[in-house]
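We examine the record.

___
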Amino acid sequence: MRRLLASMVVMGLASPAAAAAPAPSGDVKVLRVIARLDLGVTAGYGAIATDGSTAIISTGPCADGGSVKVVSLADPRRPQVVADIAERGRAVAMTGGGVAAVARDACEGTGVAVYDLADPAQPAAAAQLAAAAGTIDLVTRSEGRTIAVLGGATVRFVDLSDPAAPSDLATWAPPDRARCRAAHAFDQGRRALALCADRMHHLDLEDPSAPVLIGTAPPADGAVLPDRAAAAVLADRTLALLSQENGLRVLDIDRVPRQLAVLRSPGSQAPAGAVTSGDLAFVAWRADGVQVVDLAADLMPAVARFVPFGPEPDVIAVALLPNHLVALDATSGLWVAERPPEGPRTSNEDDLKLFLALLGIAGLVGLLVVPAVVRALSAAGRAVSAAPSRRVA
């Protein structure tokens, strides 16, 4: 009995280890679709970016007759194309200040085109950046500056606070001078991830004119680093999310970067990319749609999902609105679905941990209290036996 109680204590107080793979499905909420927009393009789509009320969508590398479509999402239930930008880009980006950028595909010539979308229905060309970029991020920092992070052979940082007058801030390359191909800004533009050769580098951008290397993650076994990455700043750690052929690689990058898990979708699809908000990751998982992963939970389970209707869904990108998500499907266009709430969630995993903790506490109380009660009862019994008996007349 004592051994059983001791094992209960251990079970109740132990913490489960982080998941290695795959992500458990658990009770997954199916997100409600509220709109779909046929963009009228059959050549496929490339990328999507949004500022919360407007989206820009590229129609894929060198797509015949392609363009960058400007979509109004002011009413998420009624998305509509309000303009076309005569560019074919491999990457797009937006910021809340009405600035948009298109990284041109090779068929259009190298460079980045900057547009003013203060009026989404009338995009205005603002500037041209003579730099080849595979990825581009735009972020407005707390001091009000808009910074562009261009991922190419090197990582380039440009001040776009005035879209018509770009100002170069810095160019960064890893210590081994390896060729880079992608970069991602996060933490309100105070940090960035750079993907160079087979490694990921974590950069401090407190001063964007002088990036500082914080740490470098080792390459994954047999996996190729992607062209896109994401990051999540949680209460107790910072995570990097890398979309790889074998799943979504999750690393803790706060100190010495270390791998925590490789998460896989129900159908073991290769993820096409991810975005984060709070402790949630929204992963574009191709035929498995959008899977919403709780990064704060020990096992990083999927807590919600959305799969476009149709025989062959193929979600290649996802972006976020304040209360909705927008998913780009390679064949069926743009989908809008409700977003799950952020903040603490109760799951089966949490319920089990609570039950085991209470069970362990109960066992600990039993170990401490029962022997004391037994000793007290034994002492009382001995006292009764030792007391002189008196006969009542």
